[in-house]
């Protein structure tokens, strides 16, 4: 075969390769947007070749938007609008300056004035007495000289013999010079001199002493000078009122927020994708781009059918950042994605069209080459101004160009006009006056005329779908944005306009082996927690640091950081009751009486003394005078209102005259130093203090004993019913009318718990508090009884004898000398972890039967997972899905993954804590349907019927508890029939994004018309499209 024949054969084969196959073009074009449009019949094959874009007849030689003929400056006849936030800031600074100007302690000032006279000199009398006259001491006699000077001098002195000597000039005697006057007399003769002066005394000494005190305080303290100055300042909080904040609305003093309540953003481009604000209406959409629709509660991602890959990736990234960081006033809990032609008839799509004013027709996709031309055309409409000499001057370097981050300097004020978005940006070193003038000039630009007639595109209407928006006009539309931004506080919509703005991304800490393992096993996403870090029991003792000193439990010997020992002793305790916006001091007999619906301020004054030498018996102990200190606790009941909680914090600051420490204390979370203030006499009553009539309706009252040390004991009022009894603690039953107390001890109560109960009962007997319904003249009688041997009067208080109403342990031979443990299991931080709840008044040396409250479980963000270790059994408590939270597919996937990891963690924990013995049983329980054995681990329990209804409707559960290993076996099921995977809802534990991995090989080939090997060879996007078409997505 000759060379010519071989060349001809190659040419023929090349032409045959171009024409054969599924498409008329090769792989480089048939899978592009243009190729997809040709397949759909929406474009001709010529669309694949470069053609002019229908969006504009742009040529490469056109110029950007025209610059204004004159700079924008303030004139007397111009009405300029100011920013409310800047005005308030200016007012605040003016008030602050006035306040500082009136503070005599911080500036040099005159503290006193006095007039002083100058001594007047009597010259004639004073000097005459002090000095003697010269005339009396020196005799004067006339001297007559008749001889010549030559005769008088020595004759041997050489004389002038030259001719010069003959011409000696006779020297005339000097004229008589007037004698100088007496300067003192001259001063005395002047009438412009004052004979007195005013002496002024300054506050230099006071300021110096104050400085020395501050310097001394700072040298002995770990706080900074600013902190010490704040603690030393005196403020009046009596006139302060709390502001009600509604989280659903955006409250701000800024009259130029850089976002709107409803925004539609178009994501379009190929090289540097442009994100621009467009009119929020359905006609603004098109099939060739992506759009983001934002509202305060929704974040929609609308993906056009022919949007390119770069636009999809950029839109998805923006939606994720906006939703996670709550940018642009959007507080949506999840992203709702709407793909054109796939899921346009769902409930999310209905909400999407409703926000846009209804579903109407919109534009189809433009030319495939339109994106790059759009980028160039829209960038040329950018306008950048600088503030120079109180004028807005166009920036020649970035006019009609894409801005860069080098523009944004700390001392610069810039105005960016992007058509539908106008921003005033200023650095952090810009003065307030410059900020105000820039805002006013930018507002004038916003309200002025705009002209885009010479541009290839109108940024206010890039799709030319609204004839009411001209290329030249006055003022911007209502949906456009006029925003004020500061350095380091820019919005993501503003950042997208810049060429080189980069966000710091979290580095990927996973190594290559972990990534490869996840790729091989798509279900191995969340791993269980390492139980070796959970099993060991912490041995740390509770303590509280006040004013830099660890006071321990508030009494006895404590050890400082320098290993020195200190002794803590109480001096006095005062309590104030907080009303809505006022407070009142409680009498002495009411100290220690709290209500769960109120808030209180407790002042504890204590003494810190140094321990010297070895400690001996009390009478021989060496005591050194210590330093008296105080702390203010603001105790907040679990049923107290938000106003009372805020008022208690403010009143704490106002009452704190000693500038002591201020500590917030929540009900049930009291530290030991707080509990010991009442020496075992703290009682928490139900209801509110001002509702005494309602509180005193019942004759009997029931209290649960809490605490392990008698001086730290406290009583919690519970419902007076058999269901409130607990076999692991002691209870106090009080009859108000008869002044009778039954001290009931559970059969599994510890000895120290019984002693705490006795101390608490004796405190009630001594104080006879009015809050409990007693009077000062009451003679209280205490009867002590054990579980199983109660008198008849005891059951009269509880209504009837019903041991099944609570978890009675009389027949349980087990040992209960252990403290329960509580862990919260969550993957909110990225990795699945377990965090243990620590009781604030814990003491590892003694057993605490009930260290936790029901609020610990129910106040956590739901749905939550808790591991409760009751030694003999372990519970996995599962929360509920709140009704107000919409459940998305991704949230379901995360929840299923967390549940599986939590169950694996629970089983491993059971095996890890009982290595030599059989592991304890583990049970799964649901919120609202907890069994009696679980609820009796807490001092009180309120059945939530509303939560029970949600749990029963959301999951297939019953009142019977289930073994964790049985539920985990169902979640770990790997094979399901095809019919189960096509039905909705899906089986529990199935990942809806990976349904194909649960199919057998036969069902896989039947459902997808290919083998697993052929499916794995497809790219990811083809796999997704195939599953969508077959209903496996």
TrEMBL record:
Major location (coarse): membrane
SUPFAM superfamilies hit by this protein: Actin depolymerizing proteins, VHP, Villin headpiece domain
Localization of this protein: Cell membrane; Cell projection, Invadopodium; Cell projection, Podosome; Cleavage furrow
Alphabetical GO biological process terms: actin filament severing; actin polymerization or depolymerization; barbed-end actin filament capping; muscle structure development
Keyword field: Actin-binding, Calcium, Cell junction, Cell membrane, Cell projection, Cytoplasm, Cytoskeleton, Membrane, Methylation, Phosphoprotein, Repeat
Entry GO CC: cell projection; cleavage furrow; costamere; midbody; nucleus; podosome
GO molecular function terms noted in the UniProt entry: actin filament binding; phosphatidylinositol-4,5-bisphosphate binding
CDD domains for this protein: gelsolin_like, gelsolin_S2_like, gelsolin_S4_like, gelsolin_S5_like
Gene3D superfamilies xref list: Severin, Villin headpiece domain
SMART domains given in the database record: GEL (SM00262), VHP (SM00153)
Domain HP residue range list: 970-1033
Membrane topology of this protein: Peripheral membrane protein
Family per record: Belongs to the villin/gelsolin family.
Assembly description: Interacts with TRIP6. Interacts with DYNLT1. Interacts with KIF14; at midbody during cytokinesis.
Record function comment: Forms a high-affinity link between the actin cytoskeleton and the membrane. Is among the first costameric proteins to assemble during myogenesis and it contributes to myogenic membrane structure and differentiation. Appears to be involved in myosin II assembly. May modulate myosin II regulation through MLCK during cell spreading, an initial step in cell migration. May play a role in invadopodial function.
Protein name, UniProt field: Supervillin
């Amino acid at each position: 075969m000759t060379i010519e024949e071989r060349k001809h054969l190659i040419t023929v084969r090349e032409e045959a390769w171009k024409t054969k196959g599924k498409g008329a073009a090769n792989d480089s074009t048939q899978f592009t947007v243009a190729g997809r449009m040709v397949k759909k019949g929406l474009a001709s094959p010529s669309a694949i070749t470069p053609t002019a874009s229908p969006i504009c007849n742009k040529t490469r030689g056109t110029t950007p938007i025209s610059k204004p003929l004159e700079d924008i400056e303030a004139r007397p006849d111009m009405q300029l609008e100011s920013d409310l936030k800047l005005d308030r800031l200016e007012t605040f600074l003016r008030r602050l300056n006035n306040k500082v100007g009136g503070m005599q302690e911080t500036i040099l000032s005159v503290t006193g004035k006095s007039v002083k006279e100058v001594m007047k000199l009597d010259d004639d009398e004073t000097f005459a007495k002090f000095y003697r006259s010269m005339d009396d001491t020196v005799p004067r006699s006339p001297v007559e000289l008749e001889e010549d000077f030559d005769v008088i001098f020595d004759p041997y002195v050489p004389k002038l013999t030259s001719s010069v000597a003959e011409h000696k000039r006779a020297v005339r005697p000097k004229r008589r010079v007037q004698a100088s006057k007496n300067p003192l007399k001259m001063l005395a003769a002047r009438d412009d001199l004052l004979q007195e002066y005013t002496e002024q005394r300054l506050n230099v000494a006071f300021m110096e002493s104050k400085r020395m005190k501050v310097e001394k305080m700072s040298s002995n303290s770990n706080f900074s000078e600013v902190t010490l100055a704040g603690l030393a300042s005196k403020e009046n909080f009596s006139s302060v009122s709390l502001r009600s904040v509604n989280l659903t609305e955006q409250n701000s003093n800024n009259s130029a927020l850089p976002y709107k309540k409803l925004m539609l953003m178009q994501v379009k481009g190929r090289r540097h994708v442009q994100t621009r604000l467009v009119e929020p209406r359905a006609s603004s959409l098109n099939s060739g781009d992506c759009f983001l629709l934002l509202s305060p509660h929704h974040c929609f991602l609308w993906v056009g059918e022919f949007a390119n890959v770069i636009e999809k990736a950029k839109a998805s990234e923006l939606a994720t950042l906006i939703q996670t960081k709550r940018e642009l006033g959007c507080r949506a809990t999840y992203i709702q994605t709407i793909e054109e032609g796939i899921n346009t008839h769902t409930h999310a799509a209905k909400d999407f069209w409703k926000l846009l004013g209804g579903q109407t027709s919109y534009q189809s996709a433009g030319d495939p080459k339109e994106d790059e031309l759009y980028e160039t055309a829209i960038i040329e409409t950018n306008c950048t101004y600088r503030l120079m000499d109180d004028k807005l001057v166009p920036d020649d370097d970035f006019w009609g160009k894409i801005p860069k981050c080098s523009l944004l300097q700390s001392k610069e004020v810039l105005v960016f006009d992007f058509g539908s978005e106008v921003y005033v940006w200023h650095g952090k070193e810009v003065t307030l006056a410059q900020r105000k003038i820039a805002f006013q000039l930018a507002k004038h630009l916003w309200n002025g005329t705009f002209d885009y007639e010479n541009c290839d595109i109108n940024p206010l209407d890039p799709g030319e779908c609204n004839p009411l928006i001209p290329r030249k006009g006055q003022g911007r539309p209502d949906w456009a944005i006029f925003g004020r931004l500061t350095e380091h506080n820019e919005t993501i919509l503003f950042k997208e306009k810049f060429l080189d703005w980069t966000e710091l991304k979290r580095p990927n800490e996973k190594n290559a082996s972990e990534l490869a393992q996840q790729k091989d096993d798509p279900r191995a996403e969340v791993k269980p927690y390492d139980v070796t870090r959970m099993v060991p029991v912490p041995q740390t003792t509770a303590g509280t640091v006040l004013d830099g000193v660890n006071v321990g439990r508030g009494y006895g010997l404590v050890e400082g950081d320098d290993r020195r020992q200190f002794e803590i002793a109480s001096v006095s305790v005062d309590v104030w009751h907080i009303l809505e916006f006022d407070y009142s001091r409680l009498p002495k007999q009411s100290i220690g009486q709290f209500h769960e619906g109120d808030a209180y301020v407790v002042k504890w004054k204590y003494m810190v003394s140094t321990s010297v030498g070895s400690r001996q018996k009390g009478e021989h102990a060496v005591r050194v005078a210590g330093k008296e200190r105080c702390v203010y606790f603001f105790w907040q009941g679990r049923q107290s209102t938000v106003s009372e909680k805020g008022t208690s914090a403010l009143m704490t600051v106002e009452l704190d005259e000693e500038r002591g420490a201020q500590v917030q204390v929540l009900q049930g979370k009291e530290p030991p130093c707080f509990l010991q203030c009442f020496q075992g006499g703290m009682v928490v009553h139900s209801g509110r203090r001002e509702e005494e009539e309602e509180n005193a309706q019942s004759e009997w009252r029931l209290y649960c004993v809490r605490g392990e040390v008698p001086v730290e004991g406290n009583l919690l009022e519970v419902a007076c019913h058999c269901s409130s009894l607990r076999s692991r603690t002691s209870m106090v039953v009080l009859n108000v009318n008869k002044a009778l107390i039954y001290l009931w001890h559970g059969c599994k109560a510890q000895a120290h718990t019984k002693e705490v109960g006795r101390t608490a009962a004796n405190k009630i007997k001594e104080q006879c508090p009015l809050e409990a319904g007693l009077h000062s003249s009451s003679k209280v009688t205490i009867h002590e009884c054990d579980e199983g041997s109660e008198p008849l009067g005891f059951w009269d208080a509880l209504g009837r004898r019903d041991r099944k109403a609570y978890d009675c342990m009389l027949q349980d031979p087990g040992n209960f000398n252990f403290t329960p443990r509580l862990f919260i299991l969550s993957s909110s931080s990225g990795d699945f972890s377990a965090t243990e709840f620590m009781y604030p008044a814990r003491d590892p040396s003694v057993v605490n039967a009930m260290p936790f409250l029901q609020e610990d479980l129910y106040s956590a963000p739901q749905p939550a997972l808790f591991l409760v270790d009751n030694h003999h059994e372990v519970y996995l408590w599962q929360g509920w899905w709140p009704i107000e939270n919409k459940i998305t597919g991704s949230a379901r996937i995360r929840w299923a993954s967390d549940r599986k990891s939590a169950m694996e963690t629970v089983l491993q924990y059971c095996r890890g804590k009982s290595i030599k013995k059989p592991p304890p049983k583990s049970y799964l329980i649901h919120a609202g349907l907890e069994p009696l054995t679980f609820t009796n681990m807490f001092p009180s329990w309120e059945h939530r019927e509303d939560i029970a209804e949600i749990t029963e409707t959301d999951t297939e559960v019953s009142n019977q508890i289930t073994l964790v290993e049985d539920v985990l076996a169902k979640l770990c099921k790997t094979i399901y029939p095809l019919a189960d995977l096509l039905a909705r809802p899906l089986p529990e534990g199935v990942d809806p994004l990976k349904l194909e991995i649960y199919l057998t090989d036969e069902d896989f080939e039947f459902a997808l018309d290919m083998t697993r090997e052929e499916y794995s060879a497809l790219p990811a996007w083809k796999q997704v499209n195939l599953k969508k078409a077959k209903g496996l997505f």
